[in-house]
Design a protein that fits this description.
By secondary structure, this protein is of the alpha+beta class. The protein has one domain. It has two helices and six strands, in the order ββββααββ. The strands form two sheets. A four-stranded mixed β-sheet has the order 1-2-4-3, with helices on one face. The two termini are about 15 Å apart. The structure holds zinc ion (ZN). The site of zinc ion (ZN) has 4 residues, from helix 1 and helix 2.
Length: about 110
Amino acid sequence: MIYPKSIQIGGHVYQIILENIPSIDSESNVGEHHYGKSTLRVATRNIDSTQRSEQAIMETICHEMCHAVNYIFCHSELTEKQVASFSQGVYQVLSQLQLTADVKCKLVPIV
Ligand SMILES: [Zn+2]
């Protein structure tokens, strides 16, 4: 799967950084949204060092995108639990559309 390398959210261009590690921080999180750095970091390994599934990686990208939307548009009023639920819904809708990223990293439908 080709993952998007960047995405624009609320006028901010976020770099999507995939890291070949099991967690982004010491709390075993697999993703991180950082507004100041304009980055969405996502771990691509499981804790046992096996490769995370494409679905798990894309769901994490969606989750971190929702954190960015929450920060920019909602003044971070959504809780982690609300962001998690909302991002699952967004991921379900996007995956249903069978979108993938082309070489320019724009989401396009699979034909
Ligand atoms: Zn989160």
